[in-house]
Amino acid sequence: MPIDKVVASAAEAVADIVDGASLAVGGFGLCGVPVDLIDALVETGVGDLAVVSNNCGVDGAGLGRLLGAHRIRRVTGSYVGENAEFARQFLSGELEVELIPQGTLAERLRAGGCGIPAFFTPAGVGTPVADGGLPWRYGTDGTVEISSPAKEVREFDGRRYVLERSVTTDFALVRATRGDRMGNLVFDKATRNFNPLCAMAGRVAIAEVEELVEPGVLDPDAVHLPGVFVQRVVRARAAEKPIEKRTVRPRPAGGPGGSTS
Q1: pLDDT value for 260
Q2: What is d(CA 97, CA 35) in angstroms, rounded to the nearest whole number?
Q3: Which residues contact 237 (CB under 8 A, 6 or more apart)?
Q4: What local confidence, expressed as pLDDT, does residue 96 receive?
Q5: Which domains, and CATH codes, for the chain?
């Protein structure tokens, strides 16, 4: 019989996440963010978390909720420009931050999920990414308490590459458009961002799905992440999907919906 990985609620799905756990969290901006699982985690009161995610949400939304409640100790990510509280905590010495190139972050997660301990990449060679010295944690007086170490650099065929370690975490929190009871997941358009990679990197991957279907319904060729990478599935609540930045422009005169007078 198929293995049924569905749990009754987001609260049950995250119940064994404890203080000090490491989490890989899917999403890009506010797109494809596992909001139900994050909300459930906020309610548990768990803290001292080490989070790996492209970004840390925005103030009051996504991972920004955990951050605002001072539950996150360390963030590994590639973009933090939309969260004022993130900047405040980092610069005041409350938060440790490892910023790395976005493609390198994606590959570190993928490599972790594939059992590859490290890889060489040209991204960051000749910069503090490879040479070290990037601030990871500030002191309360504004001085740098912890900085990034130098990484191994090698030359292959006349080009220099930096060694990057893969990433694995205790848990992964992801959101999918469709999923079945065996954990096979399908992501819609831009929601297929860091979600599959984060799920691969987590030792226990928890997926919230907008539409839960029975095994056999999903076309195997349409599955973006096979269930072997997913340990728990929970049905997502129906909720409005926020837009990080709403940008509009005036309609042209005389065009569709425009004035001709």
Answers
A1: 45
A2: 22
A3: 36
A4: 97
A5: 10-117+166-235 (3.40.1080.10)
Q: Burial code of 232-248, b = ≥16 C-beta within 10 A, e = fewer?
A: bbbbbeeeeeeeeeeee
pLDDT of residue 253: 79
Query: What is the spatial distance between Cα 238 and Cα 179, in angstroms, rounded to a whole number?
Result: 15
How many other CB atoms sit within 10 Å of the CB of residue 48? 13
Q: Are 20 and 51 in contact (CB under 8 A)?
A: no
User: pTM of the full predicted structure?
Assistant: 0.90
pLDDT at 259: 47
Q: Tokens 């596992």, residue?
A: 34
Residue type, 205: A
The pLDDT value recorded for residue 83 is: 87
Residues of the chain with pLDDT under 50: 1, 259-261
Look at residue 144 and give its three-state secondary structure.
strand
Which residues fall within 8 angstroms of residue 79, CB to CB, at 6 or more apart?
54, 55, 102
How close are the terminal C-alpha atoms of the chain, in Å?
68
Look at residues 52, 171, 168 and name the one whose alpha carbon lies nearest to residue 117.
168
Q: How many residues does the chain have?
A: 261
Q: 209 and 235 in contact (C-beta within 8 Å)?
A: yes
Residue 49 to residue 67: CA distance in whole angstroms: 10
Which stretch of DSSP H or E encloses residue 106? helix 102-114
For the beta sheet containing 153-156, the strands, ordered from the edge strand earlier in sequence to the opposite edge, are 118-121, 159-165, 153-156
Inter-residue contact 199 to 172 (CB < 8 Å): yes
Other residues' Cβ atoms within 10 Å of the Cβ of residue 112: 23
